[in-house]
Amino acid sequence: MDILLITQPQLKQNEAHLITKLFDAGLKRLHVRKPAHSALEISCLLDAIPENLLTNIVIHRHPKLVADYGLAGYHHMDQEELRHCKGTSSRSIHSLSNLSSLDDKLDYAFFGPVYRSISKKDYEPKVALPKIKEVLTDISKNKNRPKVYALGGISRKKIIALSEVGFDGFALLGSIWGHSDPVNAFIKFNQTCVESFSYNFDLVR
Predict the structure, then answer these.
(1) Integer Cα distance of 141 and 51 in angstroms
(2) Rounded CA separation 55/182 (Å)
(3) pLDDT of residue 124
(4) With contact defined as beta carbons under 8 Å apart, do 49 and 23 qualify?
(5) How many Å apart are CA 183 and CA 44, to the nearest integer?
(6) H-helix or E-strand containing 134?
(7) Does the pLDDT of residue 199 top 60, yes or no?
(8) How far is the C-alpha of 169 from the C-alpha of 163, rounded, in Å?
(9) How far out from the chain centre does Cα 73 lie?
């Protein structure tokens, strides 16, 4: 199961240093989503991150930065027109109809919230997990479908349940940034994920 991390919406002091430590701890892909900040402000953040890590970062809302910094790709909002950028192309989706008609041109998508959001007040799921499972099972008949990552309210104890629904991984935000030590929170989530699937694998061998 893949683990992706989304930044907090507001720029934070020493954020570049913290991001670097998260990559050192095993993070593979970071989504920089800061809707209230300009491309210039986000450029200052990217400038402070080691250049070798930029190819693991996906940007939201500012597609020009993908080429400017050699980023991993661009992430689209739900109804945003598909842009042609270098790297991966992904999207946030929130309805079963959009999930069932997932565009093959995407590399992956976020679907949620699957549980009550940790970081957003009153942001709750509108679709039950069994319904999501039905759609994921159906679209998985297409072997080339984009990966789908669960978003919203994801804690360590929900890893197995979400994998059984058919998600390919998790897009985390509040479960990491809501802790006083985000790096340690990420390490624990990652360890739990590895241990959970190792245990399940041993059971079915």
Answers:
(1) 39
(2) 22
(3) 83
(4) no
(5) 22
(6) helix 129-139
(7) no
(8) 7
(9) 13
